[in-house]
TrEMBL record:
Residue stretches making up the FAD-binding FR-type domain: 103-203
Record protein name field: Benzoate 1,2-dioxygenase electron transfer component BenC
Biological classification of the source: Bacteria, Bacillati, Actinomycetota, Actinomycetes, Micrococcales
Pfam families: FAD_binding_6, FCD, Fer2, NAD_binding_1
SMART domains cross-referenced by the UniProt entry: FCD (SM00895)
Residues making up the signal peptide according to the UniProt record: none
Essential cofactor(s): FAD
UniProt keyword terms in alphabetical order: 2Fe-2S, DNA-binding, Iron, Iron-sulfur, Metal-binding, Plasmid, Transcription, Transcription regulation
GO molecular function annotations of the record: 2 iron, 2 sulfur cluster binding; DNA binding; oxidoreductase activity
Domain of life: Bacteria
PANTHER family to which the protein is assigned, alphabetical: NADH OXIDOREDUCTASE HCR, PROTEIN RFBI
Classification via CDD domains: BenDO_FAD_NAD, fer2
Stored Gene3D superfamilies: 3.10.20.30, GntR ligand-binding domain-like, Nucleotide-binding domain of ferredoxin-NADP reductase (FNR) module, Translation factors
Domain 4Fe-4S ferredoxin-type: 30-62
Length: 524
């Protein structure tokens, strides 16, 4: 029968492949014409090392130069050797473009239109080439609004094994999709969408689940419930649904239906406006009970507007609760989507072309944000490994090709990082995170390769350092000297030395981040 393996690329694209019994991930990926990073294919080089976010596997044979036993224990695998023992979710340190794959554009027909209330409409599509639409419950697609050039991002409200594709939309006065659905939509309309995208998706449930929805953020959680109902876990699942007004209360019959499908499923809902039919008045955090949090041994999935995501995060901090995992999907700010308060719009092509060197990582695909609110050491290690791989690649392109002025600027950036570090500690965390990022980014800025620059800017190393480092954080002694030595090696055209410095720097950076994360956890 085999297993499904989700390959999540750095640019937000996730591909799902089927891996047969006794088949390696890499072999299955190549059959699917997805060229994930590889070199030796014998477990000897480490080029295909990938972090496993969810699931179990047989690691196969490998040598320490390719992957250590410690890395294996942390969740890493070699795709050329690993054979899945369950469904897997893997973080591939490459872009979908470099893997010769991409999100697919699908053509579909509108077959259902359900106007729940003045504020919410759901619709369903019959998708051409449906067998090619593989997605994970919780993911979203970019839908082209018929009759316009606008695109909006919506999460599936159905599970991946349901034939039709369903979505739920909040209706707003100026919303591009809102106006279409409210005023012009008719069964039989042709609708195109591209995807899937996003890292907000169900992982293998190993502990209790707490699902939190704000408004139409219920949609991806319905998809998650649908998937869970196919093989109900033994652990509890509790969902809390928060809305503003009476008109926003929709989908209760769907939730009641899952009570029969999921023996351990419970749910509740609350409205912030007094006088509604909801059993509670206020916000979702007011009806989260200690049993739902299981002393922190819980996976939280939250989808809603930014204030809700931020409020839940702050509330957990105030309660000294650190969930095992906290996955989120955060709606875009209203002003960034032409009035759509609960959707994300991909950046227009002309904006990417004009602002490609400054546009955020998420805006290029969508202004929806998805991810893990709290990151673990493994996440940081994966990011640093990915940065190392990209730096080795860009160094190959640029060694011997930098002008004198570019080398001088490279040195100025290296020297700037020395000002905020002293005696092995970070003196000014914000300044160090900024200058360190400017140094590491510089080669990608001058390499005249948009793909490499985009890949680098999709990394979260800078954000993770900024979130973790504090005044007095211990950092490896040679951090700033490494920067200066890399510039020296570039000036001498010393390829071997550049590679040695970049790989050594990455390993030391991982040790620093591990210590910083441990210290921050202890403080909490």
């Amino acid at each position: 029968m085999g297993h499904q393996v989700a390959l999540s690329f750095e640019d937000g694209v996730t591909k799902v492949i089927k891996v047969g019994d006794y088949e390696t991930v890499m072999d299955a990926a190549y059959k699917a014409r997805i060229n994930i990073p590889s070199d030796c294919r014998d477990g000897a080089c480490g080029t295909c090392k990938t972090f496993c976010d969810s699931g179990s596997f047989d690691p196969g044979d490998f040598i320490d130069d390719a992957m250590t036993e410690e890395e294996l224990e942390k969740g890493y695998l070699l795709t050329c050797q690993a054979v899945p023992e369950s469904d897997l979710a893997l973080q591939i340190p490459a872009t979908s473009e470099s893997a010769k794959t991409s999100a697919i554009t699908f053509t579909s027909t509108l077959i259902e239109l359900d106007k729940h209330s003045e504020s919410t409409i759901s619709f369903s599509l019959e998708v051409q080439n449906r067998e090619a639409l593989a997605f994970l419950p919780g993911q979203y697609v970019n839908i082209k609004v018929p009759g316009t050039d606008a695109e909006r991002s919506y999460s599936f409200s159905n599970g991946p094994d349901v034939e039709k594709a369903s979505f739920m939309v909040r209706i707003t006065p100026q919303g591009a999709m809102s106006e279409y659905l409210r005023d012009r939509a008719a069964v039989g309309d042709t609708i195109e969408f591209t995807g899937p995208y996003g890292s907000f998706f169900l992982r293998d449930p190993k502990r209790p689940l707490l699902l939190l929805a704000g408004g139409t953020g219920l949609a991806p959680l319905l998809a998650i419930l649908e998937k869970l109902s196919q093989n109900p876990p033994a652990t509890p699942i509790h969902l809390i649904y928060g809305v503003s007004r009476e008109a926003d209360i929709v989908g209760l019959d769907w939730l009641r239906a899952y009570e029969a499908k999921l023996p351990n499923f419970t749910w509740d809902y609350i409205a912030s406006e007094p006088g509604t039919s909801a059993p509670h008045t206020g916000y979702v955090t007011q009806i989260i009970e200690p049993t739902h949090l299981n002393d922190g041994d819980v996976d939280v999935y939250l989808c809603g507007p930014p204030p809700m995501v931020n409020a839940v995060s702050k509330w957990l901090d105030s309660e000294n609760i650190q969930p095992a995992n906290f996955y989120f999907e955060r709606f875009a700010p209203k002003e960034s989507t032409g009035g759509d308060a609960e959707t994300g719009a991909p950046a227009p092509a002309e904006k990417i072309q004009a602002e490609g060197d400054t546009i955020s990582r998420t805006e290029a695909v969508s202004s929806l944000e998805t991810g893990r609110l709290d990151f673990r050491k493994e996440d940081s290690f994966a990011q640093l490994d990915a940065r190392m791989g990209l730096e080795l690649a860009v160094s190959e392109l640029l060694l011997g090709r930098l002008s004198e002025e570019q080398l001088r600027q490279f040195r100025r950036l290296a020297e700037a990082t020395t000002r905020s570090v002293s005696a092995g500690t970070v003196q000014d965390p914000e300044e160090f995170a900024r200058t360190n990022e400017e140094f590491h980014e510089y080669l990608f800025v001058v390499c005249d390769n948009p793909t490499l620059l985009e890949s680098y800017r999709r990394l979260d190393v800078h954000a993770q350092m900024a979130a973790t480092f504090e005044a007095g954080t211990r950092i490896f002694e040679r951090v700033t000297q490494d920067h200066l030595d890399i510039v020296d090696a570039f000036e001498r055209h010393d390829k071997a030395r550049v590679r040695e410095l970049i790989t050594g720097h990455a390993q030391a950076a991982k040790e620093t981040m591990a210590g910083a994360i441990d210290a921050k956890t202890a403080d909490h």
